[in-house]
Specification:
By secondary structure, the protein is an alpha/beta fold. It folds into 2 domains: 82 residues, Urease, subunit C, domain 1; 107 residues, Amidohydrolase (Translation Initiation Factor IF3, 2-Layer Sandwich), CATH 3.30.110.90. Helix content is 30%, strand content 24%. It is built from 5 helices and 8 strands, in the order αββββββααβαβα. The strands form 2 sheets. Strands 1, 2, 3, 4 and 5 form a 5-stranded mixed β-sheet that branches.
Length: 194
């Protein structure tokens, strides 16, 4: 199973890199040939070929797929490896998943976003093509991925944490003094700005 996820992540990473490098309005088609295809709709695995045009899979076939010779396209030889739909991580915190908690709490948000960009790329390489970020300021990360500045999965970001005082999303230190109504900590200000 790890090989399946790794291959899919690698294919999706290569696809995203190739799409980022495209300057024309219509990217070149990608043909993934000779792969075992698991659709997730049933338990069947089919040996075949996949044609990707733009951001969409337009054809899956057990017969070889022919493409117009005049059109520039990329071929990925699958060599019998497995391809499956992208995974979805429904609970993640990309800004905090790859960094020790105390370093995250004491660091500048620009620094944390560099960590988050690396975490997003790792998610994609593990086969996750969509993630739901449930707090931690991933709105700018999602925008950077959407604009092709960095490589990562689709990010559905909630923005700031919603938590009670002392709860899972409260990063205030025990030594913090009570604040006046409406004052926000550095972490809170950055979560709302991101």
């Amino acid at each position: 199973m790890n090989k399946v996820v790794y291959l899919f992540g690698l294919v999706m990473f290569g696809l995203q890199i190739s799409l980022m490098g495209q300057t024309s309005d219509r990217p070149s088609p990608i043909l993934i040939s000779d792969v075992n295809i698991f659709t997730g709709k049933d338990e069947q695995v089919t040996r075949g070929h996949i044609l990707i045009e733009g951001k969409f899979i337009t054809r899956i076939s057990t017969e070889p797929i022919s493409i117009d010779d005049g059109q520039d396209y990329k071929i990925i030889e699958g060599g019998g490896r497995f391809v499956m739909p992208g995974l979805i991580d429904a609970h993640t915190h990309l800004l905090f998943e790859s960094i020790p908690q105390m370093l995250a709490m004491m660091s500048d948000y620009a620094y944390l976003n560099l960590y988050a960009a690396k975490a997003a790329e790792k998610q994609l390489l593990r086969g996750f093509t969509s993630v739901r970020d449930l707090g931690g300021g991933a709105l700018t990360l999602a925008k950077a991925i959407d604009q092709g500045l960095i490589v990562g999965p689709r990010v559905f970001a909630s923005g700031a944490f919603i938590s009670q005082t002392g709860g899972h999303g409260d990063f205030g230190l025990p030594t913090d003094v009570p604040r006046r109504q409406g004052e926000m900590s550095y972490v809170e200000r950055n979560e709302w700005l991101l």
